[in-house]
């Protein structure tokens, strides 16, 4: 258990479950919550026993956006000087262990952006995704214009960003925004099961697999394939590769040590 004010954080069987917990504001992302998220991710990264993170909200909302109350009176110099949300968003982007978003209810604005920063999204049937910032006279500000477009393509991204149209879970799955849709009451367990599967694997191989998929968004095909080849070759430096392949030939479960 933890003494965060806006998060509930628990670790079990190699998985840290982080629940956004500002129920009165539908988990709107304010500075306090995002600073606590940075602290929780720092702790999860530093703890060798933690192999995977699940990030979730409540049944009603993953997060209904950046906190409009906190932002409403801010000036341009304040936003620019504080580089509003850059530090916290960068922390999520730099997190080296897998992080799964488990989304039920609203994932709007910064909430949708936070989910898209995770490695993959598992959605409840109740999930609704959107970038409604245009209604407020602003725009996505934590990567939504770029990530949503890469996930769902220009036409759907323009539709959602320019009209504030929300996507339901079925459309999100059809469009490649989420990896799977599950019943709402099974959401967290389904995400935890995926995370426990990852937690039992070689943590070194997991981190390298994550790194090479991330590269697909950042580089050319030939450079990405080259990186994959180099990382693939380097995995043969680890005991975990010997163990994984020996376990296969000996028809027994592998016991990975992270070495
Ligand atoms: N910031 C601050 N408070 C929020 C909030 C937000 N983004 N979203 C919801 N809340 C608050 C509401 O003000 C309300 O508080 P009170 O009870 O004190 O009035 C409480 O959460 C419950 O919300 P509603 O009563 O509005 O609930 P609803 O079920 O009628 O509607 C909703 C739900 C459709 C999600 C609606 O709350 C809504 O439209 N929220 C705003 C969504 C939005 O515009 N998000 C983008 C924010 S800007 C952004 O994110 C910028 C960025 O990219 C960095």
Summarize the helices and strands and which ones pair or pack.
Layout (H helix, E strand, L loop, with lengths): L6 E6 L2 E6 L10 H16 L5 E5 L4 E3 L4 H4 L4 H7 L3 H9 L4 E5 L2 E3 L1 H8 L2 E5 L3 E3 L13 H9 L1 H10 L3 E2 H6 L5 E3 L4 H13 L3 H13 L5 H14 L4 H11 L10
Parallel strand pairs: 2-3, 3-5, 4-6, 5-7, 6-8, 7-10
Antiparallel strand pairs: 1-2, 8-9
Bound molecules: acetoacetyl-coenzyme A (CAA).
Q: What features would you describe in this structure?
A:
The chain is globular and about 60 Å long. The chain has twelve helices and ten strands. The mean pLDDT is 97. It is an alpha/beta fold. The strands form two sheets. It has a six-stranded mixed β-sheet, with helices on both faces. The structure holds acetoacetyl-coenzyme A (CAA).
């Amino acid at each position: 258990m933890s003494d965060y004010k806006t998060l509930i954080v628990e670790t079990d069987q190699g998985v840290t479950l982080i629940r956004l917990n500002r129920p009165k504001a539908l988990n709107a992302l304010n500075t306090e919550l995002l600073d606590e998220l940075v602290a929780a991710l720092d702790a999860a990264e530093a703890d060798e026993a933690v192999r995977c993170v699940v990030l979730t909200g409540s049944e009603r909302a993953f997060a209904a956006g950046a906190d409009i109350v906190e932002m409403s009176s801010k000036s341009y110099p304040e936003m620019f000087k504080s580089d509003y949300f850059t530090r916290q968003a960068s922390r999520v982007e730099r997190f080296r262990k897998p992080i799964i978003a488990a989304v039920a209810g609203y994932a709007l604005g910064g909430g949708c952006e936070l989910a898209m920063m995770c490695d993959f999204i598992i959605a409840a049937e109740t999930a609704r995704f959107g970038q409604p910032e245009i209604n407020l006279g602003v725009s996505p500000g934590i990567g939504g214009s770029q990530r949503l477009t890469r996930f769902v393509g220009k036409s759907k991204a323009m539709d959602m960003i320019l009209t504030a149209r929300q996507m339901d879970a079925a459309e999100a799955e059809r469009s490649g925004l989420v990896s799977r849709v599950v019943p709402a009451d099974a959401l967290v367990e389904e995400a935890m099961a995926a995370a426990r599967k990852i937690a039992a694997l070689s943590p070194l191989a997991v981190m390298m697999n994550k790194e090479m998929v991330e590269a697909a968004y950042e580089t050319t095909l030939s450079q990405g394939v080259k990186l994959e080849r180099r990382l693939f070759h380097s995995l043969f430096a680890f005991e975990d590769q010997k163990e994984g392949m020996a376990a296969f030939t000996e028809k027994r479960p592998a016991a990975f040590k992270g070495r």
